[in-house]
Amino acid sequence: MSNAVAATIQPSAVEKRVADLLGRMTLAEKLGQMNQVSAEGPGAVEALRKAVCEGRIGSVINQVDPSFVNELQRIAVEDSRLGIPLLIGRDVIHGFRTVMPIPLGQAATWNPDVVHAGARVAALEAAAAGVNWTFAPMLDISRDPRWGRIAESLGEDPFLTSRLGTAMVAGFQGADLSVPGCIAACVKHFAGYGASESGRDYATTNIPENELRNVYLPPFRAALDAGAATVMASFSDLNGVPATANRFLMRDILREEWGFGGFVVSDWDSIRQLAVHGLTASDRDSAFEAVLAGVDMDMAGGVYAAQLSALIEDGRVPMEVIDAAVASILRVKFRLGLFDRSYAELQRYPSPSEDDKRRVAHEAARQGIVLLKNDRGLLPLSPEKTRSIAVIGPLADDPYEQLGTWIFDGDPALSVTGLQGIRDLVGNEIEVHHVRALETSRSRSTKSFDGAVQAARASDVVLLFLGEESILSGEAHSRADIGLPGAQAELVRRVHEADKPVVAIIMAGRPLVLTEVIDDLDAVLFAWHPGTMGGTALADLLFGVESPSGKLPVTFPRAVGQIPIYYNQKHGGKPPSPDTAILIDDIPVRAPQTSIGNTSCHLDAGYRPLFPFGHGLSYTTFGYSNLRLSSPQLRSGEALAVSVEITNTGRIAADEVAQLYVRDLVGNVTRPVRELKGFQRVRLAPGEKTTVTFRLDSGDLAFYGRDNTLMTEPGDFQLWVGGSSEAELRAAFRLVRAGTGGTSP
Ligand code: BGC
Fold first, then answer.
1. Whose CA is closest to 223, among 154, 137, 94?
2. I need a labelling partner for 279 at 20 to 30 A (CA). Which of 183, 254, 599, 636 fits?
């Protein structure tokens, strides 16, 4: 494993210090390192101080008062026998005080630099509160928008998730974890959590090994290769063995195959839950299963603390297992430089100014908001020609709800709402009629709708701020019906009757099914939960200060029944096409049963999503032409240069995200219809043309075959470049073995 971060602090010196410390530890002190606690309830804080002093705790979760954290560190370092500092863990998922868009919204930027900058700001703010370990990034491939945790993910695609996930790790950890202001990342949830049945959180997952390796594991591998310090085991049950007890995942793959040298933490109380799953009959057996599977630290469960010593005494758990777990925890503490610098010393941190932090949050929101639809070029609005606007909806002016899930430390007082952003931009030039219309996104009362319709009638254009409140997505907040909640669809219908152009600005933690309302909306900006600077970014896009450039990191279904629907699906033996897809109204009455000529689609929804992966409109148009490959053949071990010309054919300067997809036509196992293999964000002035070149290595075409080993297989490939997963500009090439010169594979 290439581990740049560890390399900078001389691993051998670290190993010596780890071995020395380990040699001096009692069993109780070792088990202390494997114990993470959260101080909750009466007397907990006092108990925490005592336990830290006695060396019974290796990590504390959810303490962010820097003076208390420093006090705990002082007790650990000065009063405990061996002076081992604490890991202070916190969910810093998309910002700390300054809130970036939710991870799914950041993924829509398709911009690793933006993701990196957001994580850097978050790390600096969190480190100043004494946090030295975040439980992010979440790298679960998410193909089910019903699952509330899709909000925390980077979407449905392994390549995009790998690229952005490694950028986030680098943002949190910096180039050297021991530098002040760098915090350890924790990639989670290992593994397969996103495949929870029917999108219900914590539900079972069944993922064949081949799919696990080709789809769910690559982002973890990429982030660990980039130096991510720790891993969190998933709550979920994978093929009958909960991840927390899954030796195949944590021993065979993570340690043996990938050579991971950091540590694995359980999820919250997930060791005890092994008995709830029905895998074990007691806490003792749960501790046994988890520790042998390779979970090094027990998060907030107390099961290791209570059970491991008896398991060692009984000889069921060998001492080497404990030593290995403790060594990997200590290794991370050394990498963080905690033994030399245990305290949150604010004066030592490079502290970006408030303006800089807001600039990062602003740019992330601006690049991640996706223009789904823009009939007759309604957007951008002209600040000169627009005299009045109606700003309607429960999410137009709600500083808290635009922040999204997992913002324990986020400060709503910093938020710029949509209404505020518009007022800041247009001042008094445009008359603004603001009507909330619905108290919350879930409200069902339509009693304020008349006022909303009146405001619409009195305005040139309507801006409808719709979507989901923060609490409708995130952990344990899955939905079965992912349309607009409450009476929002009715609000759209009523406002549409006012016969004014309607722009919807939708804030949500997941893709929504918008089929019911889409025809009544002239333009739609999908803003996810855009964070602190959401309103400023939205105002920029609405009034054309900047063109939208976000692209969907996940497919938007037409109907819930299509789920799972994702772009990189398999072809199947009867793939659908516009000519073969049968819709319910096309079937003659009393048609005799036949499947001849029929293909894989739903009678009532067809086979296409409402908006495909990679989709996102702009205020300009881009032409793709002249797709060229450096050679029609790619030799194993070599690379192809794939270049394309992109021209801004409109009248506005804008960013475009060019996307490269390939298809392996014949495989040892069936291969996806398309797979993302490259993307680049470019900015073009009106009329400007540029050549974008992607490098495609033969290794990028590797996949896990029938025997679940990684292979590159000679054969024919197709390739597309364009502005979405439905790109049409196409070329072909052949992958040949090294040393083959001919045309046959
Ligand atoms: C979540 C994790 C999170 C942990 C600590 C769990 O419930 O699944 O993602 O990091 O809590 O808050």
1. 137
2. 254
- In short, whether 268's Cβ falls inside 6 Å of ligand 1 is yes
Could you tell me which CATH number the domain at 365-542 has? 3.40.50.1700
> Which residue, judged by its Cα, is nearest atom 7 of ligand 1?
268
Catalytic residue among 140, 144, 267, 409: 267
User: Quick check: CB of 679 below 6 Å from ligand 1?
Assistant: no
CATH class of 622-736: mainly beta
Average pLDDT rounded to a whole number, residues 322-343: 95
- Cβ of 135 closer than 6 Å to ligand 1, yes or no, is yes
List, in order, residues 6 or more apart from 543 with CB less than 8 Å away: 380, 381, 382, 383, 422, 425, 426
The mean pLDDT of 620-634, rounded to a whole number, is 98
Output the CA 266–ligand 1 centroid distance in Å. Answer: 9
Residues of the chain with CATH 3.40.50.1700: 365-542
Is ligand 1 within 6 A of the CB of residue 156? no
Q: pLDDT tens digits for 119-157?
A: 999 999 999 999 999 999 999 999 999 999 999 999 999
- Give the CATH fold of the 3-307+316-348 domain: TIM Barrel (3.20.20)
Residue 152 in contact with ligand 1 by CB distance below 6 A: no
Looking at residue 679, its pLDDT comes to: 98
Among protein residues, the one with the nearest Cα to ligand 1's atom 12 is 91
In 3-state terms, what secondary structure has residue 408? coil
Alpha carbon distance 652, 268 (integer Å) = 49
Annotation says 586 is catalytic: no
Q: What is the pLDDT of residue 1?
A: 37
Q: Ligand 1: which residue has its CA nearest to atom 10? A: 135
**Numbered ranges of CATH 3.20.20.300 in the chain:** 3-307+316-348
- Asked if 376 and 522 touch (Cβ cutoff 8 Å), the reply is yes
User: What pLDDT was estimated at residue 9?
Assistant: 52
**Rounded average pLDDT over 699-713:** 97
Minimum CA distance residue for ligand 1 atom 2: 267
The answer to whether 618 and 654 are in contact (CB under 8 A) is: yes
CA–CA distance from 740 to each of 485, 633, 659 (Å)?
Answer: 59, 10, 30
